[in-house]
Amino acid sequence: MEAMPGLDLNQPPFDLLDAAAHARIAAQVDMAFHARGEIIIGGGEPSAQVVVILKGQVHAFDLDAAGHEQRFADYGAGDIFGAWAVMAGRARHSYRADSDVVSFLIPAALFRSLLAEYPAFAAWFQEGLAVKGQLADRARGIELAELMVAQVGAAQLAPAISGWPTRPVSSRPGRACVRNGWTACWWTIPPIRSRVW
Q1: From CA 66, how far away is CA 56, in angstroms rounded?
Q2: Is the pTM for the entire model greater than 0.70?
Q3: Is the preceding peptide bond at 13 cis, omega within 30 degrees of 0?
Q4: What is d(CA 12, CA 160) in angstroms, rounded to the nearest whole number?
């Protein structure tokens, strides 16, 4: 049986499965449309399927003690969510469509069966969940920004400005030089003292 159009079973983690498993997925997978704002899986609730996004954006979030939404992750085309909800019996986070979403739904019973029959497929999800669990545990007491790793090359930095100011910046050293509304540099000019020899 041919896979459902748009569901690429040659991409991770489905590439860890054989042709027989691909045929089982193709026979049982369904498609769904989720309107913007729809809760696809509620936090703490079981899920009847694992979701693979074909098109759209999904936002994973938690509610803090005050009821404020705390962003956990964002998912887009090709991303998978709901695996933890199927494996553990309940979702750790809530998942809401941030745009209209078209997705593939892999039934929970089929997903559990594939995990049991294909150790490499199971390891892919278990390793990913273990790492996510460690990060979530650490995030409880640490700023989320400390958990993020960004390469400097990917940052959008303002160009460096060098040179001597053409007009006085301040009578006090260490004042910011503002150009076009942005702090472009930091002048630290020591007071000039004349010396008599």
Answers
A1: 29
A2: no
A3: yes
A4: 41
Which SS3 state, helix, strand or coil, does residue 91 take? coil
- The full DSSP string for 13-31 is TGGGS-HHHHHHHHHH-EE
The tokens for 17 are 């499965």
Q: How many whole angstroms separate alpha carbon 81 and alpha carbon 167? A: 57
**Under a CB-based contact definition with an 8 Å cutoff, are residues 25 and 3 in contact?**
yes
Closest by alpha carbon to 43, among 80, 76, 88? 88
Residue type, 82: G
User: Which residue is it, tokens 């003690």?
Assistant: 65
Give the span between the Cα atoms of 106 and 24, in whole angstroms: 10
Spell out the per-residue pLDDT of the chain, length 197, in tens: 455 677 888 888 888 899 999 999 999 999 999 999 999 999 999 999 999 999 999 999 998 888 888 888 999 999 999 998 999 999 999 999 999 999 999 999 999 999 999 988 888 888 755 554 554 455 444 444 444 444 444 444 555 555 555 555 444 444 444 444 444 444 444 444 444 44
Residue type, 149: V
